[in-house]
Amino acid sequence: MTDNVSLVSGVAKRYASALLDSAEETGVTADVERDLAAFEALLDESADLVRLVKSPAFSAEEQLAALSAVLAKAKIAGLAANFVKLAARNRRLFVLPDMIKAFRALLADKRGEATAEVTSAAPLSDDQVAALKQALSASSGKSVNISAKVDPALIGGLVVKIGSRMIDTSLRTKLNSLKFAMKEVG
C-alpha cells in the first residue's frame, strides 16, 4: 500500500512541477491557480464528477469528452484546461486531486509560504491565531497561514502540523502517555 501511495504522490508531484514550470514560463501562474481552485470546487460539489475522475470504468475518450464539456461550462480554459485534458488522455485522472494539491504546495513553497493545520479543543480567538501565526512564522522562516479545526476530544492544548512536522501538546496525548507510563510501573 505504501508503494502505491508513494507512486501516486510521485506522479502527482511530477505533473504539478511540470504544470508550474509551464505556467511560470508563460506568465499565467495566477490564472492556473484560480482555474485549478475552481475545478477543485467542482469536485467538492459533484459526486458524479468525482466518479468520472476516479473510475477506471470510463474510457479515456469518454472522460475527455465529459471533462471538456464541464471545463467549457465552468469557463476553465488555457493551461489549466489543457492540463486536466492531458491527465485524462494519459489515464491519470484518478491522481488529479493530488496533482492540484501538489501544485498548490509547490507554489506556496516558491512563495515562501506554509500552511499550518491547527487542531484545538475549543475555537481559537483572533489574538491566539495571530500569536500562533507569528510564532510559527518565526520558527519556520516562512509566512504561515493557519487552517484551524476544533476537536473537543483533545480536551485541551493544540496539535499543530506544518509540513512534515507535528507538534502535539494536547491534554489527550499527555493523559495517554501518563496512562502508558503507569501501566509499565504497575
Tell me about this structure.
One of its GO terms (cellular component) is proton-transporting ATP synthase complex. Keywords: ATP synthesis, Cell membrane, CF(1), Hydrogen ion transport, Ion transport, Membrane, Transport. One of its GO terms (molecular function) is proton-transporting ATP synthase activity, rotational mechanism. The chain is α+β, with helices and mostly antiparallel strands and 186 residues long. The chain has two domains: 2-108, N-terminal domain of the delta subunit of the F1F0-ATP synthase (Peroxidase, domain 1, Orthogonal Bundle), CATH 1.10.520.20; 113-185, Glutaredoxin, CATH 3.40.30. The protein contains eight helices and four strands; from the N terminus they run H-H-H-H-H-H-E-H-E-E-E-H. It has a four-stranded mixed sheet, sandwiched between helices. Helix 2 (29-45) packs across helix 5. The longest helix has 25 residues, at 2-26. The protein is elongated, with a radius of gyration of 21 Å. The relative contact order is 0.11. The model is unreliable at 1-7 (pLDDT under 50).
